[in-house]
Backbone:
């Protein structure tokens, strides 16, 4: 028996993709949760660029990660598009699955980090063309964020099966993209001119509003679920970190939108509103940051509980990166706008922690991906009820 066990282990280590008989299975099993890699990589690039002290080396490392992230996002887009083209029947059940469609929100959030990278790294390399590219991609990102924020919750209402006991922080994923796009728009608007910049800024506040209040409501229900039903299963352990996402991005969005609001809105005859927006940006950012600090402590504490029981690797581990990343960016931005040094110290520490977590998860992803252990689409599990196109357009009677 021991000899047989050893041979099986050896076989698994020596041959890649042991779970699939043909490389095409990678395409058939490719799901949108792979876009969380682009979220984590992109936000690390942006955080390194804002590390206290303006270290030139970190700027170049961040730029390299940003360019690598463009390649990653393009590859993920190609593979996921190929799944819909060549395995349409296998791709459709995602809309009826209670978890997988949530990760559609990872697509616009990953794209947003690329848009921000064009502004942080691209202008010095491509000149004004970088802003034009960022503007086009931003509108695409906004469309994807709105579509995800409407479609996935609607399917939750009419097609999918959910309960409070099975709820996790994953419910936030389709809601958050709109506020991520809003924060990105706050960076972009500064590079535009005239009334158009003011109109874009105002539209970003609308995007923020269709995301953050709903996310705050979800967090209230999530707190109740944790009190009544305790921690989720181990394979969903990292979902506790996702609460940082809407709070960090919400705080960052208010700060970025409010910082240049007096000048941008003043050009459109709305200077008084701009001054209010500036104050709301700082105060609102502080409030959401403080709320996020509570969830950060809880996430760290619950992770320690899971570690005692053993924490199995899965793609959900990328949930360590983006939520902490946007919270880090909000922390650093508060330090810049308020001049309070403790925010810069905390922000620097968060960047170091983020880089360490990103390195850990990247290594584990490459190792498990090489052996084919994470190329699995849960929506194709045995017993999953198929969902056809007609089901998406026909409401239950």
Residues:
């Amino acid at each position: 028996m021991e000899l047989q066990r050893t041979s099986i282990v050896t076989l698994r280590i020596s041959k890649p993709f042991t779970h699939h008989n043909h490389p095409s299975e990678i395409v058939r099993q490719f799901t949108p949760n792979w876009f969380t890699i682009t979220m984590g990589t992109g936000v690390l690039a942006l955080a390194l660029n804002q590390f206290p002290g303006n270290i030139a080396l970190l700027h170049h490392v961040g730029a390299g990660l940003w360019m690598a992230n463009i390649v990653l996002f393009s590859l993920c887009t190609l593979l996921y598009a190929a799944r819909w083209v060549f395995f349409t029947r296998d791709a459709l059940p995602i809309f009826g699955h209670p978890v997988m469609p949530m990760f559609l929100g990872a697509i616009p959030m990953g794209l947003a980090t690329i848009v921000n990278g064009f502004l942080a790294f691209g202008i010095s390399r491509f000149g004004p063309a970088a802003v034009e590219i960022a503007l086009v991609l931003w509108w695409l990102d906004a469309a994807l964020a709105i579509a995800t924020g409407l479609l996935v919750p609607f399917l939750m209402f009419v097609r999918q099966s959910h309960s409070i006991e099975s709820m996790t922080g994953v419910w936030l994923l389709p809601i958050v993209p709109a506020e991520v796009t809003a924060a990105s728009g706050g960076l972009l608007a500064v590079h535009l001119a005239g009334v158009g910049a003011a109109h874009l800024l105002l539209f970003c506040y609308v995007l923020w509003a269709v995301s953050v209040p709903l996310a705050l409501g979800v967090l209230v229900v999530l707190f109740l679920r944790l009190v009544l039903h305790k921690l989720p299963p181990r394979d969903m352990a990292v979902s506790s970190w996702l609460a940082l996402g809407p709070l960090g991005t919400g705080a960052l969005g208010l700060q970025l939108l409010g910082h240049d609001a007096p000048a941008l809105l003043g050009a459109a005859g709305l200077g008084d509103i701009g001054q209010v927006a500036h104050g709301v940006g700082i105060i609102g950012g502080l409030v959401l940051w403080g709320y996020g600090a509570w969830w950060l402590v809880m996430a760290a504490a619950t992770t320690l509980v899971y570690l005692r029981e053993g924490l199995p690797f899965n793609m959900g581990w990328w949930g360590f990166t983006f939520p902490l990343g946007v919270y880090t960016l909000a922390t650093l931005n508060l330090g810049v706008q308020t001049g309070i040094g403790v925010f810069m110290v905390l922000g620097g520490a968060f960047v170091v922690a983020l880089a360490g977590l990103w390195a850990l998860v990247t290594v584990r992803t490459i190792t498990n991906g090489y052996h084919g252990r994470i190329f699995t689409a849960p929506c194709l599990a045995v017993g999953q009820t198929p969902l056809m196109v007609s089901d998406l357009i026909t409401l239950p009677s």
